[in-house]
Amino acid sequence: MYHLKPQSQVIFITFPNGMPPVLKPTTTPVGTTMSSESSKKRKPKVIRSDGAPAEGKRNRSDTEQEGKYYSEEAEVDLRDPGRDYELYKYTCQELQRLMAEIQDLKSRGGKDVAIEIEERRIQSCVHFMTLKKLNRLAHIRLKKGRDQTHEAKQKVDAYHLQLQNLLYEVMHLQKEITKCLEFKSKHEEIDLVSLEEFYKEAPPDISKAEVTMGDPHQQTLARLDWELEQRKRLAEKYRECLSNKEKILKEIEVKKEYLSSLQPRLNSIMQASLPVQEYLFMPFDQAHKQYETARHLPPPLYVLFVQATAYGQACAHMKSSSQPPRQDKTLSVAIEGSVDEAKALFKPPEDSQDDESDSDAEEEQTTKRRRPTLGVQLDDKRKEMLKRHPLSVMLDLKCKDDSVLHLTFFYLMNLNIMTVKAKVTTATELITPISAGDLLSPDSVLSCLYPGDHGKKTPNPANQYQFDKVGILTLSDYVLELGHPYLWVQKLGGLHFPKEQPQQTVIADHSLSASHMETTMKLLKTRVQSRLALHKQFASLEHGIVPVTSDCQYLFPAKVVSRLVKWVTVAHEDYMELHFTKDIVDAGLAGDTNLYYMALIERGTAKLQAAVVLNPGYSSIPPIFQLCLNWKGEKTNSNDDNIRAMESEVNVCYKELCGPWPSHQLLTNQLQRLCVLLDVYLETESHDDSVEGPKEFPQEKMCLRLFRGPSRMKPFKYNHPQGFFSHR
Amino acid sequence: MKHQTSTLPFLSVFLEPPMGMHGQVLAAAKEAEVFQALQRLHMTIFSQSVSPCGKFLAAGNNYGQIAIFSLSAALSSEAKEESKKPVVTFQAHDGPVYSMVSTDRHLLSAGDGEVKAWLWAEMLKKGCKELWCRQPPYRTSLEVPEINALLLVPKENSLILAGGDCQLHTMDLETGTFTRVLRGHTDYIHCLALRERSPEVLSGGEDGAVRLWDLRTAKEVQTIEVYKHEECSRPHNGRWIGCLATDSDWMVCGGGPALTLWHLRSSTPTTVFPMRAPQKHVTFYQDLILSAGQGRCVNQWQLSGELKAQVPGSSPGLLSLSLNQQPAAPECKVLTAAGNSCRVDVFTNLGYRAFSLSF
Asked: Which of A111, A660, B100, B301 is buried most, with the most CB atoms less than 10 Å from its CB?
């Protein structure tokens, strides 16, 4: 019935009308089998047309253009579904009929039946093909229907989205509108003058009544302008008032200065009137005045002043009771410095607060003025920290030979320590030997008055922290300028800095000062006397004379041949570098507070060098000698037992050389003893038999034996009245 | 402005107790400290002796003090600085302690003219007193002669003393009496040595002679005047014999003359040891000769005269060596050397100074 054009996957069926269809017995219902088969077969086709619609289209258009190709899709459009349905119904009926006929024939049986059945089968096959075709068409229609529905749905969705966007835009615009409606200007908060006042007072170039009367916006602007104008004027006025105030303050300042300068002038008038008072025999009560001054001393200096005065008077009393009264006192005390400065520092308590704030302000000013460099600022701070109290206490200690030790005590206010500067003056002019340079120098005369008290470090442990702040490494760099903060000075001022338990505030204590006063004064006197004695001795030592006093004469034989030829001072570093002083350095006896000398003793070709350590505590601590003999090679304590013995004779057995108390003769006696020892050493040196000629040093000393003991000691010990030498 | 003080109305402050010896006490302490440092610096240790138990070492110095060191404590693994200090120090003599020897119970020490005996067992306690004190019969002299050498003769339980009076005195340890006097030296005697096999004693002295004495006959049997032999004579150093040691056939001696090994029977010098500095102590040890003297080192010599080793000690000069060979304390087998310092150097083996004991 249908003329189907040959195409790739379509099954072509020819209608061989002449040939009877052969029906094979089938068990399964034909319809179901066919439909499942057809769906299976059709599937690739559908997919194919789906997968390549463009091709399909082209195919379709190709069909339309050329009419050559067969396209089922195109065919669908051409056919009426209603008629297809009719066709379907008809085909089904036909099939049913044919099936019934076949049934019939089969049940009847017979020979020719087979041919007829074949015929029927062919017919029914044709019907099946028709059904199949219809089925395909139905599928295509369904798909088409679906596609259309989908397309329509997408369109609807797009429209919906557009609608949503528009709605949102509308909402946003509405919000903006309400915001704009709600806007408030700042000027509304400003309290403006009332409208009537404005028109009455504002100049017309601001109010512009003709413009602003009608326009409320312009009116408000004009009113704001007016407000601004008025405020500017008020600010100007305020500034004027301030400068006025400044001026008045300055005036007050000037007047104050004038008043304060009045006081010194009055004082100088008083001073000038003093001679008049003296002339008129009505002197000021000196003591009272000093007492007055003492009131302005800081507590430690006050303690020192009181205690020293008391001690001085007690001494004077004791002396006057036992001896005829002397004109000069051993100890005199005086106060030096400007009392006014002290007063300025130390005001009565009711003024103190003002004072403090003033000084604070001053400090601020100074720091402001000197901000530019950090160094200057630090320097300033250091100066401030090391500031001395303007008042100082002078102590003059007279010794027996009319030499005076002048001590000036200062108080460092910010460090809470006391320092002292010392000076020695003698009754007669001293010829200063070169080697005695350091003996009486202010820097060293009082060094180690008490053991280890070299006065280079601050005794107040709290100071170290203060120093750290302003970058002071040690106080020793400032000691020459400030004076030495010896421990005994603190004690005299009643200041005690316990190492174990640092106290918050150190209070000047009278009893502490009193307990140290006598000992210290005695030590000071001993020190000055021993230094003066050394001073004198050095003068003659430099001339090669070892002065031996008559009361020490018994220590030495009458004839001493070795002579001192040189006595010079050496630097600590040079002493340390000498090759024969290592033992002393290693034993820690060569500290830098000691004084160092070099002596040269000669006899003939023998030269004995002696390096001397003079402890500042001389003469209670003996000088220490190290020897080096240049004679037949260099001999020191490391290669000659007898040189070692000589050293120990002067260093260890020094006590017999001390002479009468206070043993100021120790050093010279030791030197003289060295001369004697050198004599003994040289004279007892065993004579080398192989060398011809007489001995250089004939034995003149009387000796019991020349050598003794395993180390072959020489007889260094001198026995006084008999005058012979023996072994120790 | 200067105000002179004339009178002050108040004096009450001064009435507070003017104590304050504090400063003087401090000064005195400092003085004592310096004096002690100087004493230590000028100390010479003349003699050493090991206790019979081998665990203690006695050392005597020029101040007459004897210090007892505990070798076992100083050598133990947990030795501290304190264990290198003396256990006990006491004043034994007025003058230097020149020589010390130990018997199986006693320490005998000799110095200026006297020999004292101390019980080892009691010495470690504080406040020890000497057991006895003897003085050899000296011919009267202005000064008391010193005793430089002590020598024990175990066979006859006697002690030989020699020193300043140029004589050897033998003392019976049983009774404490001086039995013999051997005269011959013309100057004082430095050192003694015992020939173990025959009861003969060698002595060397300042006069430069080594004399051999027969104890049975109390006679001098041989004299070697060392300085007269050219090989070892050193006139610039003097002729004195400072040290002496013997192993019966051989004798080594030194001092002013060079350190020399002698064959005794033929009395000929066989080896002269090349050492410039005078030697103060010499001893045989196994097949070596140990010597010490001027200079820091302990010298070890082969018998052929080769210097085997020089081990530096801490003192600038050495006066005595002591080998602790007590079988009772094998762990304390050390060599100790002392001299011109306050330290006794301890050598745990011959080649190395381990540490120093110090006064």
From this structure: B100
Residue given tokens 């004077």 in the structure block: A316
Residue A660 and residue A558 share a domain: yes
Cβ–Cβ gap A710/B8 under 8 Å? no
How many residues does this entry show for chain B? 359
Does pTM surpass 0.80? no
Most distant CA pair in chain A, distance: 194
Mean pLDDT score across all residues of chain B: 86
CB A463 within 8 A of CB A475: yes
A574 with A712, same domain: the answer is: yes
Mutant choice from B10, B12, B25, B34 vs A, greatest count of A C-beta within 10 A: B34
B116 burial level (CB within 10 Å; 0-12, 13-18, 19+): buried
Instruction: Note whether residue A638 is domain-resident.
Output: yes
User: Which token pair is A712?
Assistant: 């072959």
Tokens of B341: 């310092």
φ, ψ dihedrals at A374, nearest 5°: -70, -40
Chain B contact present for A277, CB below 8 A: no
User: What pLDDT band is residue B6 in, cutting at 50, 70 and 90?
Assistant: very low
Residue A349 lies in a domain: no
- CB distance B23–A624 less than 8 Å? no
DSSP A524-581: HHHHHHHHHHHHHHHHHHHTT-----GGGGGGS-S----EEEEEEE--HHHHHH-TT-
Order of all β-strands in the sheet with B56-61? B45-50, B56-61, B65-70, B88-91
Q: Which of A450, A651, A689 sits opposite B42 (nearest CB)?
A: A651
Tokens of B148: 């430089």
ipTM: 0.88
Return the pLDDT at A40.
40
Give the domain extent around A483: 294-316+329-343+376-526
Please tell me the total count of domains within chain A. 4
Token pair, residue A333, equals: 């005390």
The answer on A682 and A563 residing in a single domain is yes
| Distance between CA atoms of residues A572 and A461, nearest Å | 29
Q: For the packed helices A113-182 and A30-51, what is the interaxial angle rounded to 10 degrees?
A: 40
* Token code pair at residue A62: 């190709």
Sign of CA dihedral A193, A196, A200, A204: positive
Residue of B222, B261, B251, B257 whose CA lies nearest to B236: B257
Query: At B59, is the secondary structure helix, strand, or coil?
Result: strand
Domain final residue, candidates A132, A156, A182:
A182
pLDDT tens figures, B154-191 = 888 999 999 888 899 999 999 989 998 999 999 999 99
A515 touches A421 (CB < 8 A): no
Distance CA A717, CA B323 (A): 35
A178 and A217 share one domain: no
Q: Which two tokens stand for residue B186?
A: 């013309």
Tell me, yes or no, whether A489 and A624 share the same domain: no
Interface of A with B in 646-675 (CB under 8 A): 647-648, 651-652
Report chain A residues whose CB lies below 8 A from the CB of B20.
Answer: 515-519
Is A18 within a domain?
no
- Same-domain pairing of A466 and A588: no
Which residues lie across from B295 on neighbouring strands? B317
Do the domain assignments include residue A711? yes
Contact A494, A303 (CB under 8 A): yes
Which DSSP helix (H) or strand (E) runs through A47?
Answer: helix A30-51
Question: Which amino acid, residue A726?
Answer: S
Q: Which residue has the tokens 């003698």?
A: A426
Boundary (domain end) residue, out of A182, A205, A226: A182
Whether A583 and A717 share a structural domain: yes
Q: State the DSSP code for A449.
A: S
Co-location of A206 and A256 in the same domain: yes
Question: Cα–Cα distance between A727 and A713 in angstroms, integer?
Answer: 7
